[in-house]
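Newbie here. two chains, one complex. Structure please?
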Amino acid sequence: DAGVTQSPTHLIKTRGQQVTLRCSPKSGHDTVSWYQQALGQGPQFIFQYYEEEERQRGNFPDRFSGHQFPNYSSELNVNALLLGDSALYLCASSLLWAGDSGNTIYFGEGSWLTVV
Amino acid sequence: KQEVTQIPAALSVPEGENLVLNCSFTDSAIYNLQWFRQDPGKGLTSLLLIQSSQREQTSGRLNASLDKSSGRSTLYIAASQPGDSATYLCAVSLGSGGGADGLTFGKGTHLIIQP
């Protein structure tokens, strides 16, 4: 059973460019969340998708947008890149309602974005 | 706004010691609390999940407790091993009532176990 897969693993972009990161959730999961992790910091919640809709959003500007496809995979798009967007971008998948067993969240290995 | 603090920021101990990592959060209205492990340059692995109605969870040498009213959780690692070296992150759900809400993380405790 494949876990959460993300692509690409590493990429370098120039300020002002746009980037798209991709995520395939763990089999059976219906909810995808995206996080940004700067060096030495904990992950920061960007947004969450369920049933192809943005369900929750953290404190990130509109330059950060996303999409979820019918097969539950997801994309994170960042426009007008800034140097400060350089970080590890993590995708996490889960079931929206897991009942009493609780919602264990599975993370991918992340996409390292460097903006120069 | 929920804030999560982890103490200590870094810890280095000899192999075999028992140790405690601390996590505190400012808003007690959480849905659940999770402890994760992160190896350098890698994603996160869930270690333990405690629902808001629970007091503790155990998995092998790991035990996590939750005191929701005081906004505190501890992760206890027994008989530490060099393979336990990693960053340990505490996270609480945003608690909007959903089952898989976004998480608020602490900055983590960087743990080194000396052979």
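Moderator note: The mean pLDDT of chain A is 93. The longest strand of chain A covers residues 87-94. Thread marked as resolved.
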